[in-house]
């Protein structure tokens, strides 16, 4: 198991994702002799997990069962322990494409936060790229570095505990892409530029407030960035439901055309119970959805 | 950081490169070919002069269609704020505010005036420009600039650029797959280097190319294709290095059932398959899915040779000789194709693919149900459809069939913003929809078990017999 490489079987030391339902998943550190409590009962790692195939069904002590999945950055995003507000897959997917990330890309990121985006970046830039991630909160930096190790991606990432607005990314002239998710992104624009390759690259800033966007765009333009483009992306989930719609009864309709022979035998069909409603498969939106995450501002750094 | 000239060589435009032309928000994919006339945005020119310049260079189109790198100075705006009105109360749309006529402007163009100079002329001859507000003036200049611009930027292709290009220029060719939807697909399917991914793509090969870019030449991609041959025009536009194509395999879906049943014979020659293979060969060589030219390139070059009237007899013999050589070549080619088919079949037979991406004009349901069998458990898949209803059907089928979790039907809402001091707001027009996605994760299929051990949340799969011995 690694976050950048699939394996077929669960091994001691892996991180597996226990799938309870589509809105309830939990990461589990697989350890010989350890146990994990779920609402369906206990999972015994030695017997229930180690040696099993990823994707198998595991029966818990109370008789209920769960599925054990191979970790992916996307499953991690919905199950990771939150230490900060995190980026979700919809924004992450857009950021990944718009920053033109691919195997071999060198990326700078700040702040690291809970590492939701970091894992997705690492997945995409492996096996030859590198992520330089800067987090000013010491405990968070330490914690995420430990997670990278557990997820076997630590060879692809350097975690720095410093303030990007003051100290920059700790590297110059190496990055193909820079991502900023900090309260004052405009203060880091210069550092972003310095971190990037002289041949140019792409930058993205994520900000919840439009005032931050306004200011960041001004700074980006001042620093010579081109193709500055701000967008917002939202996920719309369609829950699939079978619904039944009642048909109204307008009483007998004498003008209705009915086959002459059926006319005598069948009484007015409108009263028959099996004709009073129609059943169909359709989708409904969730009652409430995240209506705003943040604005994504992208720009291109030209050759300098 | 020591930079030398060699480091730049990979950033230089070379003959034969696949590039993307850009002006404003308009993109067009091209190959750099000597003395080839290119038409872009109603202007024609030659790309020869771009060779050896760096990617992302902006060129000016000079008379005679030659390109000249634009000097950076030119981009600086010469219009400093002079006079501006406070509102538009005095501006009347009587069509008389511009003193210059269409002919005047054409004359300027013929005289070789630059776009900047033409705009300056337009401003000077506009009676209302001075009364416009500062913002309206900026808007006016921007609009005119767009109209009279004669520059083109040459970019290195990327998934971002090509996805935006296809969506803007030819959405019909890619089943109206919006770029952000493609971005979701690549992420939801966990596409990454070193994995084995199945792709079913009738979106001109854009999705396939995007998957290949994300895999960086590591791992294998198996293109499952319908009909005579795989469509890959979009893949060419990415301009991948040669070794990327080593990871690309192809398998015709008409062979899926025989493969699953174990009756696909890749050792002996199947005349039917051979015919299809040769069709494919020609199609591949033309790089154009729509070109329905019959015959191989050799044949075509022969025809041009036959036009020469000298030495008809000789020609005839040559012809026969070549025919023989061609037949031999064809044999070798078919053998190669057969080997390739066998290799793709071997990759599929182990049924341990790591990802499945479907984006096609076909009904997604049979495609998904047919190809899901090739995935390992605990692997993601994603299906695109322009329409929601077929994906509802897929969802229903998957729930009946079992073997998947985490099913979700989604689409994304995308809005661009104009960000300007005191004028920030959403862009007035936005895309009405970018298509729908059904995504999920495979899990090991249930073995028949006594009822009662199932949770209510996940109904028992109705067709339990469809386990891994299916087929």
UniProtKB/TrEMBL annotation, chain A:
The listed locations are: Nucleus
Q: What class of enzyme is it?
A: transferase
Sequence ranges of Polar residues compositional bias: 272-285
Please state the Enzyme Commission number of this protein.
2.1.1.220
Tree of life domain: Eukaryota
Enumerate the residue ranges of region (Disordered).
Answer: 248-304
Reaction(s) catalysed by this chain, per the record, are: adenosine(58) in tRNA + S-adenosyl-L-methionine = N(1)-methyladenosine(58) in tRNA + S-adenosyl-L-homocysteine + H(+); an adenosine in mRNA + S-adenosyl-L-methionine = an N(1)-methyladenosine in mRNA + S-adenosyl-L-homocysteine + H(+)
Q: What is its main location?
A: nucleus
One GO location term (cellular component)? tRNA (m1A) methyltransferase complex
Q: Which keywords, in A-to-Z order, does the entry hold?
A: Acetylation, Methyltransferase, Nucleus, S-adenosyl-L-methionine, Transferase, tRNA processing
Instruction: Enumerate the spans annotated as tRNA (adenine(58)-N(1))-methyltransferase catalytic subunit TRM61 C-terminal domain.
Output: 64-301
Alphabetical list of PROSITE patterns matching this protein: SAM_TRM61
Q: NADP: is it a keyword of this entry? A: no
Query: What is a single molecular function from GO for this protein?
Result: tRNA (adenine(58)-N1)-methyltransferase activity
Similarity annotation: Belongs to the class I-like SAM-binding methyltransferase superfamily. TRM61 family.
Spell out the subunit comment: Heterotetramer; composed of two copies of TRMT6 and two copies of TRMT61A.
- Record's protein name: tRNA (adenine(58)-N(1))-methyltransferase catalytic subunit TRMT61A
According to the entry, what is the taxonomic lineage of the organism? Answer: Eukaryota, Metazoa, Chordata, Craniata, Vertebrata
UniProtKB/TrEMBL annotation, chain B:
Region span, Disordered: 66-96, 265-332, 447-471
**InterPro entries xrefs:** TRM6 (IPR017423)
Q: Does the keyword Mitochondrion apply?
A: no
Give the chief site where it resides.
nucleus
Q: Specify whether Nucleotidyltransferase is a keyword of the entry.
A: no
Which Pfam families does the UniProt record give? Gcd10p
Kindly list the GO CC terms recorded for this protein: nucleus; tRNA (m1A) methyltransferase complex
Gene Ontology biological-process entries? tRNA methylation
Bias kind Basic and acidic residues: ranges? 80-96, 267-283, 313-332, 455-471
Q: Where in the cell is it found?
A: Nucleus
Identify the keywords attached in UniProt to this record, alphabetized. Answer: Nucleus, tRNA processing
For this chain, the family text in UniProt reads: Belongs to the TRM6/GCD10 family.
Q: What does this protein do?
A: Substrate-binding subunit of tRNA (adenine-N1-)-methyltransferase, which catalyzes the formation of N1-methyladenine at position 58 (m1A58) in initiator methionyl-tRNA.
Assembly and interaction partners: Heterotetramer.
Q: What is this protein called?
A: tRNA (adenine(58)-N(1))-methyltransferase non-catalytic subunit TRM6
> What is the species of this protein?
Seriola dumerili
């Amino acid at each position: 198991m690694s976050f950048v490489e699939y394996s077929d079987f669960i091994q001691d030391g892996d991180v597996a994702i226990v799938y309870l339902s589509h809105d309830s998943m939990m990461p589990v550190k697989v350890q010989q002799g350890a146990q994990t409590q779920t609402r369906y009962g206990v999972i015994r790692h030695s017997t229930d997990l180690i040696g099993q195939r990823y994707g198998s069904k595991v029966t818990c002590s109370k008789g209920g069962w769960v599925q054990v999945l191979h970790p992916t950055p996307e499953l991690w995003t919905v199950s990771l322990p939150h230490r900060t507000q995190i980026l979700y897959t919809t924004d992450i997917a857009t950021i990944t494409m718009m920053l033109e990330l691919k195997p071999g890309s060198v990326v700078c990121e700040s702040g690291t936060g809970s590492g939701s985006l970091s894992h997705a970046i690492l997945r995409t830039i492996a096996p030859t790229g590198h992520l330089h991630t800067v987090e000013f909160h010491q405990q968070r930096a330490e914690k995420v570095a430990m997670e990278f190790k557990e997820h076997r991606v630590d060879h692809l990432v350097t975690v720095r505990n410093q303030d990007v607005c003051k100290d920059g990314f700790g590297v110059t002239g190496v990055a193909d892409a820079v991502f900023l998710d900090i309260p004052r992104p405009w203060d880091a624009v210069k550092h972003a530029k310095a971190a990037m390759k002289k041949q140019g690259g792409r930058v993205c800033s994520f900000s919840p407030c439009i005032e931050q966007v306004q200011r960041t765009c001004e700074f980006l333009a001042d620093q010579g960035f081109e193709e500055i483009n701000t967008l917002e992306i939202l996920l719309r989930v369609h829950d699939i439901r079978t619904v039944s719609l009642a048909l109204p009864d307008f009483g007998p309709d004498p003008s209705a055309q009915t086959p002459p022979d059926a006319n005598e035998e069948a009484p007015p069909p409108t009263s028959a119970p099996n004709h009073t409603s129609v059943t169909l498969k359709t989708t409904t939106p969730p009652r409430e959805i995240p209506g705003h995450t943040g604005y994504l501002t992208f720009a291109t750094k030209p050759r300098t | 950081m020591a930079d030398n000239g060699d480091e730049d060589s990979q950033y230089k435009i070379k003959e034969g490169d696949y590039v993307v032309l850009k002006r404003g928000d308009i993109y067009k994919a091209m190959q750099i070919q000597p003395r080839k006339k290119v038409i872009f945005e109603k202007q024609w020119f030659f790309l020869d002069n771009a060779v050896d310049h760096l990617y992302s260079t902006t060129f000016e189109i000079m008379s005679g269609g030659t390109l000249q790198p634009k000097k950076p100075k030119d981009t600086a705006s010469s219009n400093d704020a002079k006079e501006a009105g406070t509102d538009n109360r005095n501006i009347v749309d009587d069509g008389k505010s511009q003193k210059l006529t269409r002919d005047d402007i054409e004359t300027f163009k013929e005289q070789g005036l630059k776009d900047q100079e033409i705009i300056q002329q337009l401003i000077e001859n506009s009676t209302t420009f001075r009364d416009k507000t500062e913002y309206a003036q900026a808007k006016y200049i921007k609009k005119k600039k767009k109209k009279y611009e004669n520059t083109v930027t040459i970019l290195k292709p990327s998934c971002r650029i090509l996805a935006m290009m296809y969506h803007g220029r030819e959405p019909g060719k890619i089943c109206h797959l919006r770029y952000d939807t493609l971005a979701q697909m690549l992420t939801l399917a966990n596409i990454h280097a070193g994995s084995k991914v199945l792709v079913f793509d009738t979106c001109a090969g854009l999705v396939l190319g995007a998957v290949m870019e994300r895999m960086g030449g590591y791992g294998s991609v198996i293109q499952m294709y319908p009909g005579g041959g795989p469509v890959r025009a979009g893949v060419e536009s990415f301009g991948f290095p040669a070794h990327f194509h080593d990871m690309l395999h192809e398998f015709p879906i008409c062979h899926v059932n025989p493969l699953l049943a174990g009756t696909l014979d890749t050792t002996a020659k199947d005349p039917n398959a051979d015919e299809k293979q040769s069709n494919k060969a020609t199609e591949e060589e033309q790089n154009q899915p729509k070109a329905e030219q019959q015959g191989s390139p050799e044949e075509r070059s022969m025809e041009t040779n036959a036009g020469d009237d000298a030495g008809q007899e000789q020609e005839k013999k040559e012809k026969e000789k070549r025919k023989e050589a061609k037949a031999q070549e064809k044999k070798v080619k078919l053998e190669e194709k057969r080997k390739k088919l066998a290799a793709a079949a071997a990759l599929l037979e182990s049924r341990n693919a790591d990802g499945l991406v479907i984006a096609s004009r076909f009904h997604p349901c049979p495609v998904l149900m047919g190809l899901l069998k090739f995935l390992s458990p605990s692997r993601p898949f994603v299906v695109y459809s322009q329409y929601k209803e077929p994906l509802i059907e897929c969802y229903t089928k998957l729930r009946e069939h079992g073997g998947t979790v985490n099913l979700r039907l989604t689409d994304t809402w995308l809005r661009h913003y104009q960000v300007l001091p005191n004028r920030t707001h959403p862009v007035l027009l936005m895309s009405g929809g970018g298509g729908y996605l059904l995504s999920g994760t495979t899990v090991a299929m249930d073995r028949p078990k006594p009822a009662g051990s199932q949770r209510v949340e996940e109904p028992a799969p109705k067709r339990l017999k469809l386990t891994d011995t299916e087929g």
